[in-house]
Each structure stands twice: as C-alpha cells, then as structure tokens.
Amino acid sequence: MRRLLAPFGVAGWAGVVAAVAASALRVAVVPLFVGPVLDRVLVQGDMDVLPRVLALTGAALIGMSLLVLAQETMLASSGAALAARWRERLYRDLLRREPGRLPGTSGGLAGRILADLVEVEHFHRYGIGTIVAEGTAIAAILAVLFWRAPGPTLALLALGVPAAWVLAVLGRRLRAQADRAQAGSEAVTAHLQEGLRQHAVARAFDAEAFLIRRFAGANDATRRAAVRRGFLSALQIPATQIALFAALAGLVTLLAGQASAGRLSVGEVVEYLTLVALLTTPAQMLPRGYALLRQGEAAARRLLALETAPARDGPPRDPPGPDAAERAAAAPAAVAERGLRLDDVWVRHPDGPYVLRGATAHLPERGLVALVGDSGAGKSTLLAVLLGFLSAERGWATLAGRPLASARDAIGWVPQSLDLMRGTLRDNLTLGRDATDEDLRGALRAVGMDEAVDALPTGLDHVLTEDGAGLSGGQRQRLAIARALLRRPAVLLLDEPTANLDAASEDALVRTLRREGRHRLVLAVAHRAALANAADLVLRLEDGRLHAVQPSSSGAAVPSAAAKRGNGRGGDAGGEST
Predict the structure, then answer these.
(1) Roughly what angle, to the nearest 10 degrees, separates helices 280-304 and 106-122?
(2) Does 314 reside within a domain?
(3) Helix 150-159 and helix 128-148: axis angle, to 10°?
(4) pTM summary value
(5) What residues are paired with 447 via a beta bridge?
(6) Do 300 and 328 reside in the same domain of the chain?
(7) What is the chain's Cα-based Rg?
(8) Residue 40 scores a pLDDT above 80
(9) Is 323's pLDDT higher than 50?
C-alpha cells in the first residue's frame, strides 16, 4: 500500500519538502510580527524596529506563497505520474493473464482501475500536502507554545486527546464506506458496459426495463455508500472542532491566570493566543487530509488486489507434480519431424473434470483439418492448449519436432468472436507489429478483401468504430484471417469461422481456407457440414480423445478404419494432406 500512497519520485518528495517549509514559515510569521509589534513598537514605542519587522514578515509571507505554489505543483505532477504508471502496470498485468482468468468483467475492471486511481491521485494532489503541511504546522505551533508556556501547552495536549480519538473512530468507518462506494462504482461500470455493448440485443428484445432493473440495485447501493462516505467525511470537521473548542476554553483559563500573576507579558499572551488561534486552520484541514488518506487506502487495497505473481515471459508450463520429472524425461527430443503432434494430452480447467483425456494426433504440415464434436466436447479447450492459454497436466504438443511452447510465433489464431478495435484498419491488422503496405495488401488479397479496402476513401487508414461497425460479418471474418496470416504462421487455428456467415460467404471462406491449406496447416473448429466436407482430414473430439473420420458429402462423420485401429492409447488420430 505504501507503493501507492507514499510520495512518488523526486517531484513527490520535493512537494513534501516545500509543504514542510511553507508550513514552518506560516508559523514563524506570528513570533516575527505579533510579539515585536506589541511589546517593542506599541508598548515601548521603539519605532526603529518596525521596518525590520515588516521586512522579515514580508519575506516570510512571499517565501511561504512561493513554497505553497511549488508544493501543489509538485504533488499534482507526481500524483499524475503515479496514476499513469499504475494504469499501464495494471493494464499490462491483466493483458498477460490467461484468457478467461480475469478477476472480473472487462467493464468492471476498467471502471475499478480508473475510479480507484482517481482516489489515489486525489490523495497525492491534496491529501499528502494537507497532512504534511498541517501536521508540520501543529508540531511547530506546539513547539513555540511549549517554549512560551510549558504548563498550558501540556494541558492543551491532554485536552486534545478526545479530538484525536474522534478522528480515529470516524476514519475507520470512513474507510469501510469508501470500500463499499468503490466496489459499487465497479459494479455500476460493469452494468453500463454490458448494457451498452449489448445495445442491439436490448432494443431487439425490448430489454431496456430488464437492464435498468439490474442496474438500479447496484446504482442505489453505490449512492447510499457515497452518501454515508460524504457524511462521515463532513462529520470529522465539526466533531474535531467541538473537541478542540473545549480544549481551548480550558487553555484560556490557564493563560488568564498566568498573565494576572505576571509570568507572561501582554505581547506574549497575545502571541500565544494568536498561535492557538492558528491551530484552528490545521484542526479543520487535517481531518480533510485524513479522510483523503482513508479513501486512498481503500482504493490502494483494491488496486493491489489486482496484482498477480510476476508475469511470465512465455506460455504457462506444466504444473509440478509427482510425475513431472518422469514426463520431462519422456518428452520427445527435437527431431526432423514435420507437422503438429499431440501426445497423450490431459487437460482440465481449474477445479473441474478432465476435458482432454489422452488426446493424441499427428497432423500434416499442410492441409485443411476440421475439428468436430458435440458442444462442450472440448474443441475450444484444445485450441487454447495449442495457443498456450492452458497447460497440459500430462502429455505434450510439438510442432515440427519442437515443443509447442517455443513455437508460439508460428501459430496464427482467428477467434470465434470477431472483435475489432477502435482505430484504423492498419492498426487492426498489425496490432503493433511492423508490416509494410505490401505485406498488408498481400494478406488482404489472400482473403479477398483487397478490393473492398481499396474502395474506401482512406484505404488502410480507414477508421473503424467499436467492434468494426459498418462491416459485414463476412468482412470482419476475412479481416481476422488476414490479421492472422500477417504472422506468416505455420499453423492457422480458427474457432468456428463459418458459424455466423450466410451460404455465399461461407462458400467463399471455405475456398480461402482450402487455398491457405496448400501453404500451411489450417485447423478449424467446424459445426457446419460445408467446412468439414471440404477438409482434407476431419478429427472428432469425443470423450476427451481425438478420432480421425472421413469427410462425406452428406456431412456425416464416418470413423475411418485407421481411426478404429488407432483407438487405443488416447485414440491416436492422424493423416496426410491430400
């Protein structure tokens, strides 16, 4: 938590130093001006000291103003820098997690990061300066008071204990309400993001009332938490002031007795009371800074909870187990072997049953392979293993004799959801990778999208809105394939690429995949007959094992003789490109 709330960088600590110096000068103005003017100028009539008193006091005030300016500028700068660094840090950390393992919805996480970092930045900008400046002021004032009159000052400290207790109690409750308000804000953001993302569905099914009802509960809970947080934050000031007023009443009584006994001069009494009066400003401001600290603590805890273990540089490795050494010793060495090979792969999702149970297959170096099976059989899970999103508890996968973990750059992927990003076509295709216009047009030409892109007024620099609005499903599918082809992959993986296409678009896409199969291995999850019938090899995933079947014009999957013969250990499936 200290990483988020401590002064950040050189600017942050420079702001703290400026706050301490400005506060010290604010307190120094009283003994520089009040005592000398009353005792020497007004009482003794020594006018010669007045110019020096005014010069020193003016210099102190000018210095204090400049230091306050430096304090606020430095702390605002450091707070903004800290927030920017943590936005990038958390965003990078979440991007490196395995797909499907994010600790919340995309909208909720986005709202959580932004809202909580606003709280942290607000504390850096206003809370740190307030706590440091007002805390320094209180310490300096008490030091001068103790120097002038030790007895009344000790009494003032004793009488101020109730105020500190009130502040601590309210602070704990404020932090709890801040937690609830920030969690509510995350829930509200998630509802907003979900509803707006599903806008077309909401309108088509007249679901506005349903979405608003779901939203209203989280919205009202957030409002109540924010109201309670605001009340507790505001209550700190009057509660502290009442406690301090009682302390000041007792102090004035003590001072009056010392003045009447001649132990303090009039100037000293006035100076003392002026310094005590100055305590009212930090007494009002310090609770505000304390409230910002408590809210910042709540936000910092929520942000730190998003952190994970150090990000891995590559795909996840097999988890350690009693047979880890045996599996490592048995793993195949890199040999001059072509194609993609799966050997006795066992995979399950966390705390779930095994989805793949000894899946075994040897796929050719080139060709179109269709992966079929019932819904929930594990087809997408198998793709996740090949992509490195999931690790096998047993078995291994190799590409051209190399472990698949070291061949990630040789795999291209076209997901089932064709999400495109806001930005240009160029950015959507390259995703930050270096690529020439010739490379881009070559990939578009391969999927039959080059003429459509050339027809746009700005071509590759055409700006897409969210999810590629304005493009047909077939066009978005082709762009996704072109993006994968830009990597020049040895293996192209596609998850139900024809699921949402009409017959004409499906036919065109199948021809594209057949053409690409002449240059690389194309493995596509297929639920429709057209793709399976066009494939060189069909694999059926059933009971966690792979079986080779022969495509037929009727779309039926007939187990091949080779599959039946190899349906021993893991249901070995294989074939060569035709």
Answers:
(1) 150
(2) no
(3) 140
(4) 0.66
(5) none
(6) no
(7) 36
(8) no
(9) no
